[in-house]
Each structure stands twice: as C-alpha cells, then as structure tokens.
Specification:
384 residues; alpha/beta; Nucleotidyltransferase, domain 5; single chain
Length: 384
Amino acid sequence: MQIITHQEELESITENLSNVSRIAADLEFDKNYYRYGFNLCLVQLFDGENCYLVDPLSDDLNIKSIFPVLEDPEIEIITFAFGEDLRLLHSLGCFPKNIYDIDIATSLLNYEPGSLTKLLDEAIDVDTGKSSQTSNWFQRPLTDQQKKYAAHDVLHLFDLKDKLDREVKEKGIENWLAGEKKSWEEDDFSDISNNQIIREKDKNDLSEVEWHIFKALMEYWDEKAQEINRPLFKVIKKDLLQQIAAKPRTLGRWHRTRGIHRKFKSDEIKEELQDLIRNAKAEALEIGLSESEPAYKPLPQDKKQEIRQHKQLVSRAKDEFFNPIKKAIEDDFGKETATFLFSNRIIDEIVSNRGSNLEGYKKEILKKYSDRLNLKPDPYIDNI
C-alpha cells in the first residue's frame, strides 16, 4: 500500500497505470456531514500488484492528473456501487469510461443486496474486518484502520470480478452486463446539484409570504455554512428557520435558542436576520404573495385525474404484461434478477415514455418473454 501525497508521486503512478488493462477503483468522500458540500477525500486504485491511496486533500498534488487514466476507454475500471462516486467525479470534470460495477453484476446474477464486505465474505471467502465507512475521511493523518478499510475496498475486486464473469458466462447474460456498462457511459451528472437545500416538503404549514421569507433565510444560512465550511444542519436547524419565518419574534430569544452554531449567536447576526426578514416580507407583498394563502398548493383536479389515470395504466401494464414476464425471469434467473431488470420504478418509466429510453438488451428481454408467453406489448411499449 502506497500513500500518494506529492505531485511527482502521482505523475509516476499515473504513467504506470496508463499502461494496464484494468484498474480497481473506489472513492472515499464526505457529503455534507463533516464539512460543507460534496467533497472528495481519498482515491483508492489497485492495478493487480500495487495499491495506491491518493490524497486529494494534499496541497502538494493536483488530483486531476489521474483523470485521463480513469477516462481511458481502453482501461476497464472495476468498482462496487459506484453511483455516488460517479456523480462526484462528474462534478469535478472527470467522466470515466468502461466501468464494470460489481454491484450491477451481482444484481443480474441474483445475489441478494448487501455490502461489499458481505459479498467478499460470501463469494470469495474474504473477511475484510470492521468497516470504517462512516469515519471522518477529512482527518489527517489517516488511521491504520482507515487505510486498511480503504485498501480492502479495491484489493479484492479483480478476484471478485473474475468469479462473477464466469457466472455471467455460465448464465449466458454477457449482453445484459454489456448493456448496463454502456448505460454508465451515457449518464451525465455534471449539472445535477449535490447540495439541494430547499425542498417542496419544507413548505409544511407556511403561508406564501412565510415561504418567501424561509427561502431567503435558507440562502443566508447556506452562505454562512460555506463561510465556516460546515454542513448547514450543523450551523442551524431547518425547523428553526421555518419557525422564525412563521414567527419572527422567535428572534427575541436568539442568544438562548438551541440548534445554532455558537459563532453566530451574536447581536450582529440577529440584526442582520431582522433586516432580512423585513426586506423579504416587503418583497413578498410587493410581488403579490399572500399572508394567509398556504404556500403548498394541492394539485388541481385535472392533474389529479391525470395521475390517477397514469397509475391505473401502470397497474394494468403490470398485471397484463410485466408481472408475467418478471415471474418467468424469476423462474429462469431468480427473484433479485427479475426485480433489478424491471423494478416498479423502471416499469413506471417504461410506461411513461413507452420504452423510448429503454436499454436495448432490456427490449430484447421483453421481446423474448412476451413472445414466449404470447403477451401483447403494444398498449404499453413501442418497437420491441
């Protein structure tokens, strides 16, 4: 195991890794728990012989130097449950190619959902010990336990992948796995916000004016959270801001109120908030928002009817088409495989867009089983 903290070390291993055919990769990150935002804390890489723990928090290296290796389509990147990792890499401008996600392979092979630790134990009899996944990956130096955990996340992926490949071949589902691999390369998460602070459910019982004030408060405190590099929930509680938006007089107890970071329990902050609330309320009234009308608006009847009709269509599609196919797939490959291929969410998406975005291999599966079972896909999906 080699800890990489200097640019010359990173450039050296990058040159070495650019000449291999496959790399096991994993990331450790923090998403609004110890610090503000979605932050990369460690990159683990294994080439079959050498394990590298690359420290992106080091001031003496530029982590982007490794990106071309991850983006090289000639190098297979072997991972486990890489969804969040991929979102983070996309946000940093890295778009890996040729990804083999073991979590997807095991789903196709009817393994029960579980952690990598559990999978390694069950599939190749490797005990990696106690997890450190929820530890603080910002701390430096890393503990021996953290380094061991981080290394174990990649050290056994080659052996696991080789075993799964044999099982995929035995079951004759190589094209299924290839279809899933292709879909990874078509995803783009670079424009997706990883720090959404305001949600529709936050409206609760707020009026239109109070909701306008609440949004202004949230934006103010999001800036404060960034200033001290702490997640918003560790700076101030969201339910407290909802209370202040509805009852600004709550600020009268500012210094005695729980759930506020001590740095901001000052008269200066209190006065800024009072000014913000006055200005936000004036702005809300100026644009015609109501002090009595609720911010949350029930759906109009025509929209409710549209949703009901869609649910009825999806239910009918399940009963008449998808459930019989899922049962046949379950008989052939297992329940976990059938659920992964055609979950309730996926069926809803298929019916909603009539399969226009459906992966090619899944269209082939639907065609094969609908023909076998003499089912008519026309009411629910086109072109299979």
